[in-house]
Amino acid sequence: MSTKLKDKEEKIQQIIAKSIEESTKDKPIVVEGKKDKVALQEMGIKGKIVTLKTGGKSFLQITEAIEKLGVNEVILLLDFDRRGKEGTLRLKHNLERVLIKPNMKFWFDFQALVGQDIACIESLPSYLNTLQERFV
Fold first, then answer.
1. Rounded CA separation 89/18 (Å)
2. Please, what is the angle between helix 3-23 and helix 124-133, to 10°?
3. E strand or H helix at 117
4. Theoretical Cys-Cys bridge with 95: which of 13, 47, 74, 100, CB 3.0 to 4.6 Å?
C-alpha cells in the first residue's frame, strides 16, 4: 500500500471525525437521499441528518423545513456529480436568503479527496473499507 493511499485514508477519517463532532453541535447535515443518510450513520454520525429527496420536496420546501429546525448553520453534503454540485449551490443560495449559514467545508474536503473516485456520499463507507483492506 502506498503512503499516498494511507494518507488519503487518514484524511478521510479526520474529515469523518470532524463531521461527527460538528453534527453533535446542533448542526444538521443535509444529504440527497436515504442511502446517503444510512452511509453517514454507518460512519458514526449520530446528529440530525436531513434528506433532500424524501417525499418529492422542492428546494424551497427543504429550505423551509431546515428553517423550522431553528438552527443558524447546516452542513451541506450532497453528492459530487453534476446534479449534486448544482443542488449544493442552489440550496446554499436558498439558505443564505433565510440567513442560515451553509457549511460546505466537509463537502469541499471530501470532494478534493474522493471526488475523482466516487460520485455519491452513499459510496463513502465502501470506498473507505476498500482503502483500509489494502493495509491488511
1. 22
2. 140
3. none
4. 100
